[in-house]
Write a structure and sequence with these properties.
With 155 residues, the protein is an all-alpha fold. The chain is built from seven helices and no strands. Helix 3 packs antiparallel against helix 5 (106-116). It is globular and about 45 Å long. The model is unreliable at 3-35 (pLDDT under 50).
């Protein structure tokens, strides 16, 4: 067999190998693309009767409105509630933690603003007006403070 024929056979073999490899990759991508999409976080109908257990409620950080948090957790899928609740509680010793400050869903964000509004309650007027804390809820706290002033309540 001549060198030219051998080279042609090698090229055909390489072509077939590349096509097989590409087909294999394409097939695995097809499997990924046909997996079900992630479920939405927000329930279509909130569970109005959802309640946080007393022992879990006792671990909630002080700058959080526990009743608003309960409403928020009733609005999300049951399988994510405990994980979400932990973001509003004192961590156990050695436990890593982070706080939840933002949702992409407007309805959830509106309730999250109520959840964090107490974090702004003791802020001086200038901080409340300009911002200064990373927590959401500033607008809710500002509105509540203005309502109390209109009613003549002591601040």
């Amino acid at each position: 067999m001549s060198g030219h024929a051998r080279s042609a056979i090698v090229r055909v073999f390489m072509f077939v190998a590349c096509v097989a490899l590409l087909y294999g990759c394409e097939h695995s991508q097809e499997d990924l693309m046909t997996t079900p999409e992630m479920q939405p976080l927000q329930l279509q109908v909130p569970e109005a009767d959802y309640r946080i257990a007393a022992e879990d409620r006792a671990r909630i950080v002080p700058d959080v409105d526990a009743d608003a948090l309960e409403r928020l957790l009733g609005m999300v899928r049951p399988d994510v509630r405990m994980e979400m609740l932990r973001m509003f509680q004192h961590p156990a010793p050695g436990e890593r933690f982070g706080y939840l400050f933002e949702f992409s869903e407007p309805e959830l964000q509106a309730v999250l603003e109520e959840v964090w509004a107490p974090a702004w309650e003791d802020a001086p007027d200038e901080i409340l007006e300009k911002g200064g804390l990373p927590h959401p809820g500033r607008e809710v706290a500002l509105r509540r403070r203005e309502e109390r002033r209109r009613r003549g309540d002591a601040l």
